[in-house]
Amino acid sequence: MKTVLVTGGAGFIGGNFVLSLVGSGRYRVINLDALTYAGNLDTLARVMDNPNHVFVHGDIRDITLTSKLMDEHKPAAIINFAAESHVDRSIDSPGDFVHTNVVGVYELLQCSLNYWKSLSGVRKDDFRFIHISTDEVYGSLGDKGKFTETHPYAPNSPYAASKASSDHFVRAYYRTYGLPSIITNCSNNYGPYQFPEKLTPLVIHKALAGERLPVYGDGRQIRDWLYVEDHCDAIEMVMERGKPGQVYNIGGNCEKTNLDVVRKLCSIIDDMEPESPNRPHESLIEFVEDRLGHDRRYAIDYSKIEKELGWRPKHTFDSGFAKTVKWYIDNRDWCKRVMSGAYRGERLGLGEK
After folding, report:
1. Rounded CA gap, 228 and 251, in Å?
2. Which of 119, 116, 154 lies closest to 135, judged by CA?
3. CB–CB of 285/257 below 8 Å?
4. Mind listing the pLDDT tens digit for each residue in 225-274?
5. Which domains does the chain have, with CATH numbers?
6. pLDDT at position 238, please?
7. How far apart are CA 36 and CA 14, in angstroms?
8. Whether 304 contacts 251, CB under 8 Å
9. 3-state secondary structure (DSSP) of residue 79
10. At how many degrees (to 10) do helices 199-209 and 317-330 cross?
11. What is the pLDDT of residues 336-351, one digit of tens each?
């Protein structure tokens, strides 16, 4: 059984990844998470008593702790999900993103490098550092084309800039020191256990409560939507068969405007909640002032990971969003518990012009 160290494993994508690995029975997972507002142990409830899951409350900037975990558990791979990840929050508090996404990744890389150097033979050859990044590092696309792995970086938000910086550090540690690292850049994820400040869970949460559904600007911003379970499958493939020094773009082949997504969610909720007094839920849509520096279009070309590793998304726009809405309807108590912290659905990212 392979032991892996997952950072940020109580968050949305990291939590789904941990549940997938532990559930497969093929991995022992050491799960390090700082439990900030977006990380919570409710996500991990079904594996907290599993002997193949070890949860550790801590920060990737704590080099004493991360070094101890690596020396004690001897992971075959380190998968870094730990990040401040919300664009609106980065507009309000960019410093937090620098501390975690840049400084934190540097500290984790340095500990990983020291650990990797201590290995020998097959263990050293097979070790991997997997860094989970975003398509937002590439900036905004025009009406045509998709982001490939060689697309130039042009981040437009403090969040995207912090992730771009961490990507460059990971690449530099491979080129300079030989640390066997891989970067993945994904499109917009959706699915179970997502903190309700992101578009999909926020719309579901507000629609079920009969509240107004905020849509930024004209709602025509285009994103490539990726169901989180598909993303987790791709990361596992990268961990097992990806080549050090490579970048793999992971997308859902699902370009939709934000307004398309909100309307689809409303339609699904109409069908699943036929007794709701708020039907049709689309009537709750309210256009609000656009986000500062809002990128117009993202789209991922995932042909490289499809060709080299055989991955492609399994979920369609209809199937993925139907599963997502059903999960949130069936897990309203989870939403209530995670919303009991500092965030309660208010508008973030207004900043100062």
Report:
1. 10
2. 154
3. no
4. 999 999 999 999 999 999 999 999 999 999 999 999 999 999 999 999 99
5. 2-191+226-254+293-316 (3.40.50.720)
6. 98
7. 13
8. no
9. strand
10. 50
11. 877 766 433 333 444 4
> Residue 55: in which H helix or E strand, if any?
strand 53-57
For residues 245 and 183, what is the distance between their CA atoms, to the nearest angstrom? 8
Measured CA to CA, the distance from residue 283 to residue 298 in angstroms comes to 27
Run of H or E including 239: helix 228-241
Q: How are the residues of the chain apportioned to helix, strand and coil, as percentages rounded to the nearest 5?
A: 45, 20, 35
C-alpha R_g of the chain? 20
- Written as one letter, the residue type at 109 is L
CA distance 150 to 35: 34
In sequence order, what are the residues at sequence separation of 6 or more whose Cβ sits closer than 8 angstroms to the Cβ of residue 211?
284, 345
Q: At what angle do helices 317-330 and 258-272 cross, to 10 degrees?
A: 60
First to last CA, the chain: 53
| CB-based contact 107:61 (threshold 8 Å) | yes
Identity of the residue numbered 307? K
Instruction: Please give the distance of CA 74 from its chain centroid, rounded to a whole number.
Output: 25
pLDDT at residue 62 is higher than 80: yes
Phi, psi (5° rounding) for residue 18?
A: -60, -45
Integer CA distances (angstroms), 9 to 21, 33, 171, 202, in order: 11, 6, 23, 21
- 245: tokens are 């020094």
Q: Which residues are catalytic?
A: 135-136, 159
Query: Residue 253 has what pLDDT?
Result: 94
In our burial notation (b when 16+ CB lie closer than 10 A, e otherwise), range 139-168 reads bbbeeeebbebebeeebbbbbbbbbbbbbe
